[in-house]
């Protein structure tokens, strides 16, 4: 994009959070998400507390200032008192710990001698107890991408947070089915200096995790948090990037945002802008007859319109930071979070939204704004409006310094929005309910003996051993069906390419057609390929058979074959069918000669319906055409 990233001093690191396919980390509840509305709801409020050093984490304090309560949706049959924080955590899930150690060894990391669980303060409501449990598992790993080495300083095992379902100004609603699912957290060093390589490295790490065969698959089961900074900017933690394709876009847009904020800082310094002081002025009277529906509604309901002058800020609030997001959008984020108002109005975009030019001029006059000043106002109940305006002024003053350190949320288009300040060191303290776990040499040796092949090793072996194409070998090596692929090939002695393409292509096509392929199990697939190896079915009929089995998963394959009429034709039956079709089209055969083969092949295959091998059909058809031409 023409941004000299090296000159800008771009530094990028990221954390990968991968859910493990086991029961929950500190209880025996299942790790599965449900869509049915839960039958039980619990309301809570969380408050920040001091660490052992007597300090309060700034991110926790910022969350508390939002003043929100939390509603927790509970499934009584699959959520226990541990998730509700009404019972101490059970001993750590040993299977999950072994998977984390396995991932650490695959990434060349050194496991710790003893695993200690820590508490990480989180009071945004996503953890009922006000903290997340996390345990350091290994140190000093690394990967190689594009011929360069990148550090992995830490690998942790932690519990996933509750799912946020929705929120309103008073409450955030969370579902507890995800809370406690084990996550392996892999943190890289800030070693990346361009937007593209982090995505490649994240893909590589994800492939290694999949190689264990013990991680969850699907949207939301793996997430990336990206740490980004430039030389004159500040570190930003971008949370919740779920798609690898978005990583580069998020980095590029964040760099542009920081550059734009630095330009704003420099412009304000040239103008001689100073720290904004003072509280808001009530300007509701100016809008008593306004045509703005939002303003009229809030004031009519007893709300205030509080305004503040921003000296020397004219034109700054309209500056674009990211596509579709301006500096005024950053201020609006603060107002919404801390004041629970709908947003802000400012003179860089007025008259607009039903607010007239006359009202805008009167607003500037009442506040005493000069031509190079901007005015911001918010509408809402007095307490909310005051909190919103205070947050706006705080963010405006940060602009005088440049780029504030923040935790931001990734949006679907690659932009980001403010969540909270970056947390400090005060957020971590020991978990007193979980005893330390020694990591013995015997335990590590048992894991080492069962380490899986790395993806690149598997691809090479599949090409050499099964003669798969590079593309198909790459796809099946990363598939959740990889073990099933090898098992079918060895048990049924069928063409490996056919098995791989069925698992990776045919099933995908059937799913797109609306076939419930999730109903197919290992037995269905093995039985189908066994019949193929015994020549009781033809490969052309496999999609039909699997489609029928998916719709009737309890039916036996043999009965499905009878219903579909897919039992293999004998050579005699096939020859008789071909002879009849050739005789019925004898005029075409005489006119076109052997060229008629192509058209008649389609006619024959339509009648065969997958009950005969296409190659054999073609051979017999060619012989019949030649025979008739000679006759």
Account of the protein in words:
- The chain is an alpha+beta fold and 631 residues long.
- The protein folds into four domains: 259 residues, no CATH class; 126 residues, GAD-like domain (Gyrase A, domain 2), CATH 3.30.1360.30; 112 residues, no CATH class; 60 residues.
- 41% of the residues lie in helices and 20% in strands.
- It has 21 helices and 23 strands.
- A hairpin with a 6-residue loop joins β12 and β13.
- It is globular and about 105 Å long.
- The termini are far apart.
Quick tags:
631 residues, alpha+beta, Gyrase A, domain 2, 11-stranded mixed beta sheet
Amount of beta strand: 15-25%
How far apart, in Å, are the first and last alpha carbons?
A: 71 Å
Shape: globular
User: What would the average pLDDT be, to the nearest integer?
Assistant: 86
The biggest beta sheet is recorded as: 11 strands, mixed
Total DSSP helices: 21
Low-pLDDT parts are none
Question: How would you classify the quaternary structure?
Answer: single chain
Rg, Å, rounded: 32 Å
* Count of extended strands: 23
- Share in helix: 40-55%
Count of spatially separate domains: 4
Specify the structural class: alpha+beta
């Amino acid at each position: 994009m023409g941004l000299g990233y090296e000159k800008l001093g771009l530094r990028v690191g990221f954390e990968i959070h991968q859910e493990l396919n086991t029961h929950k980390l500190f209880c025996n509840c299942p790790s599965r998400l449900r869509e049915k509305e839960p039958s039980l709801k619990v309301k809570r409020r969380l408050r920040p507390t001091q660490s052992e050093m007597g300090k309060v984490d700034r991110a926790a304090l910022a969350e508390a200032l939002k003043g929100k309560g939390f509603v927790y949706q509970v499934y009584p049959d699959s959520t226990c008192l541990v998730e509700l924080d009404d019972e101490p955590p059970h001993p750590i899930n040993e299977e999950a710990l072994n998977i984390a150690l396995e991932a650490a060894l695959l990434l060349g990391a050194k496991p710790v001698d003893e695993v200690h669980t820590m508490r990480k303060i989180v009071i945004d409501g996503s953890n009922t107890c006000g903290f997340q449990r996390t345990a350091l598992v290994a140190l000093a790993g690394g990967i190689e991408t594009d011929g360069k080495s990148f550090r992995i300083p830490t690998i942790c095992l932690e519990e996933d947070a509750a799912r946020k379902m929705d929120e309103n100004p008073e409450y955030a609603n969370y579902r507890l089915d995800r809370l406690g699912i084990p996550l392996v957290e892999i943190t890289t060093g800030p070693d990346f200096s361009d937007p593209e390589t982090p995505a490649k490295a994240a893909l590589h790490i994800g492939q290694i995790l999949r190689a264990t065969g013990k991680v969850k698959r699907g949207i939301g089961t793996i997430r990336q948090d990206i740490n980004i900074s430039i030389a004159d900017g500040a570190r930003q933690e971008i949370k919740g990037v779920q798609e690898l394709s978005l990583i580069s876009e998020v980095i590029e847009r964040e760099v542009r945002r920081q550059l734009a904020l630095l330009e704003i800082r420099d412009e304000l310094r040239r103008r001689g802008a100073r720290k904004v002081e003072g509280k808001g002025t009530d300007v509701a009277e100016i809008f008593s007859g306004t045509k703005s529906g939002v303003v009229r509604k809030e004031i009519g309901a007893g709300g205030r319109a509080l305004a503040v002058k921003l000296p020397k800020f004219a034109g700054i609030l309209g500056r674009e930071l990211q596509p579709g997001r301006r500096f005024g959008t950053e201020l609006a984020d603060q107002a919404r979070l801390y004041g629970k108002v709908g947003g802000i109005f400012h003179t860089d975009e007025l008259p607009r939204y039903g607010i007239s030019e006359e009202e805008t001029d009167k607003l500037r006059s009442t506040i005493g704004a000069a031509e190079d000043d901007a005015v911001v106002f918010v509408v809402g109940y007095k307490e909310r409006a005051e909190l919103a305006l205070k947050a706006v002024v705080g963010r405006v003053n940060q602009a005088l310094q440049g780029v504030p350190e923040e935790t931001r949320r990734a949006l679907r288009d690659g932009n980001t929005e403010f969540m909270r300040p970056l947390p400090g060191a005060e957020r971590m303290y020991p978990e007193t309910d979980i005893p330390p776990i020694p990591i013995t040499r015997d335990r590590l040796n048992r894991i080492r003996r069962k380490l899986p092949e790395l993806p690149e090793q598997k691809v090479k072996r599949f090409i050499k051993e099964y003669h798969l194409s590079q593309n198909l070998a790459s796809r099946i090596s990363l598939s959740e069906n990889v073990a099933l692929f090898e098992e079918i090939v060895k048990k049924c002695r069928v063409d490996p390419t056919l098995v791989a393409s069925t698992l990776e292509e045919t099933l995908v096509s059937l799913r797109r057609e609306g076939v419930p392929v999730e109903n197919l199990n290992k037995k269905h697939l093995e039985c189908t390929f066994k019949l193929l190896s015994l020549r009781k079915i033809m490969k052309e009929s496999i999609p039909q058979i699997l489609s029928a089995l998916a719709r009737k998963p309890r039916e036996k394959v043999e009965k499905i074959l009878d219903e579909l009429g897919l039992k293999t034709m004998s050579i005699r039956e096939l020859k008789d069918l071909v002879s009849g079709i050739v005789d019925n089209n004898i005029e075409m055969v005489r006119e076109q000669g052997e060229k008629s083969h192509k058209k008649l092949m389609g006619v024959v295959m339509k009648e065969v319906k997958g009950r005969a091998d296409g190659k054999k059909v073609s051979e017999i058809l060619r012989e019949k055409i030649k025979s008739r031409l000679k006759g």
